[in-house]
Design goal:
The chain is an alpha+beta fold. It has two domains: 37-232, Phage tail protein beta-alpha-beta fold (3-Layer(bab) Sandwich); 234-339, Phage tail protein beta-alpha-beta fold (3-Layer(bab) Sandwich). It has ten helices and 17 strands. The strands form six sheets. It has a five-stranded mixed sheet, with helices on both faces. The termini are far apart. Mean pLDDT is 89; it is low at 1-34.
Length: 339
């Protein structure tokens, strides 16, 4: 009897020892392990196993020369296909069906949008091919942007990488884009994919484009009539100071050698916060009349251009036409009409 008791106690001690020696993996380590496993799997393995739509699209863009645009908000749908097609067009069709998404194939890219809401069908009518000066058709874009990235960050990234100057007014600049992968597409097509992913319908969007810049705006901009055909961007000026060339990077300056990537920002900052940076980049004193200090200034990166154009692109983002600027006595004065 005593031997049985001792044997039972020994077994219990052994079980306790085994339990203590088998440490559980911390949650963070398990998460990292899962991420590493995803990175090591090819995209077809992921599709068979199950993964979020944005992860699949990102991996497709990383492994194949393919261009895909997903409407923002749809990126969290799950993709799981037991027998994924090897032919890319057929695979995208499978993915759209499994995620209950409609598919538009146009200009050699795929656009996916929710089937259950017919309002998204309107996005398929947005077309920018051939709508800009021919200069931009020679800019070929290869890029990827994650779902939720603010539109101004996307445009700044294109400016920084490809030497263009694309700006959007405050009615759309902070909209989040969807997951987008772009492979060797003309700039106009890249912008079409990006705007569609941000749910910008063709009825609302307008643009003014020259060889020097592209400015997107909507019907909410009170300067809309003046922005038609870029009439408001009058390059003529009697002030030589406005002809000086500047490079604008807000809210912070970035190295001009482009050895670092352009930082992404959360949102606009008050004019008063970016004024010191703007003063440093223009070499002029900044003065703000009452009522202008809190005007929102979106992060922006503008390549070398005349000071007047840079200030126009900054101030025309404000939807209220009463806000403007003057340049006099080595000062940039931001004003509000009637003040």
């Amino acid at each position: 009897m005593q031997k049985k008791i001792l044997y039972f106690i020994g077994i219990c001690i052994l079980l306790i020892f085994v339990n203590l020696s088998c440490k559980s993996t911390p949650k963070e380590e398990r998460s990292n392990s899962r991420d590493e496993m995803i990175q090591n799997e090819n995209v077809f393995d992921l599709i068979k196993e199950s993964a979020l739509l944005n992860v699949i699209v990102r991996r497709l863009g990383g492994e194949y020369p393919i261009s895909i645009s997903i409407v923002n908000g749809a990126e969290t749908r799950w993709v799981q296909i037991d027998k994924p097609e090897k032919e890319m067009a057929n695979l995208i069709q499978q993915i759209s069906e499994k995620t209950n998404m409609s598919l538009q194939e146009v200009n050699d890219y795929y656009f996916l949008y929710p089937t259950e809401q017919s309002i998204y069908e309107n996005l398929t009518r947005l077309s920018l091919l051939g709508k800009f000066p021919s200069k931009y058709e020679h800019i070929t874009v290869t890029a990827g942007f994650g779902a939720g990235t603010k539109l101004f960050n996307v445009l700044n990234s294109l400016n920084f990488t490809y030497g263009c100057n694309i700006v959007a007014d405050n009615s759309i600049a902070e909209l989040p884009v969807g997951e987008v992968v772009i492979s060797q597409k003309p700039l106009s097509i890249a912008l079409e994919m990006i705007l569609k992913s941000a749910r910008i319908v063709p009825q609302n969007i307008r643009w003014c484009a020259t060889d020097d810049f592209i400015f997107f705006y909507t019907t909410l901009n009170m300067r809309m009539d003046q922005l038609v055909d870029c009439k408001i961007f009058n390059p003529e000026t009697k002030q030589s100071l406005l002809d000086k060339e500047v490079i604008i990077s807000l809210p912070k300056s970035v190295p001009l050698d482009r050895k670092v990537s352009l930082p992404f920002y959360e949102g606009a900052l008050p004019l008063s916060k970016v004024a010191p940076v703007l003063a440093n980049q223009t070499g002029l004193t900044i003065e703000m009349m009452p009522g202008t200090e809190n005007l929102p200034v979106n992060p922006c990166y503008l390549n070398k251009m005349k000071l007047k154009l840079a200030l126009d692109l900054l101030t025309f983002q404000w939807l209220d036409i009463s806000y403007s600027y003057l340049v006099e006595n080595e000062k940039i004065i931001f004003t509000k009409l009637g003040k």
